[in-house]
Design a protein that fits this description.
Length: 214
Amino acid sequence: MNARMPHDVTADHPSAPAETDIAIIGTGFAGLGMAIRLRQSGLTDFLVAEKADSVGGTWRDNHYPGCACDVQSHVYSFSFAPNPRWSRMFARQPEIRAYLDDCVRRFGVERHLRFGHELTSAIYDDTRRRWHLRFANGQQWSARVLISAMGGLSRASTPNIPGIETFKGRAFHSQHWDHGYPLEGKRVAVIGTGASAIQFVPQIAPRVAHLDLF
């Protein structure tokens, strides 16, 4: 979803925090689910901050070959928005991301979203009983309630392997998959056998010259 939000007046006056009752951080399943439920409860005084330029969270950032849900699709969705059109029992990444985009439009939360807002600090003011939020783009918010929906998979975990800085080949994390780099004919090493590896390793194994899985 790449729709931009209406002009934010705080961009012209960055020293004046935008006042909102509820601030939500993140637009993955958790953040969007909270936003939708607030609207369904009749609450509209809230904003949702997203550091990227589109929604999706894990399903925006992870797009390696074979990326898919490892929970059955019909239960890996909002209880209030069942999807009878899943094409597979374990839906692939593009389909899950499209589902989230559809929920944003269907439940009318677009106007609450603020893209390009990476949270840098959150300080609670005991006197005013409000949160003061600062973002990397210079924006500031004041909120009565702060809800963190940043998730546990928003940042790639790269091990500190001695000598990795002198490695002459191409190296990248599965979350930052380089689709422009051809693997055909290459010797490839994969570190890790978690949920991501068990999805992309079978996809790349037939294409590479040699593969080692550590």
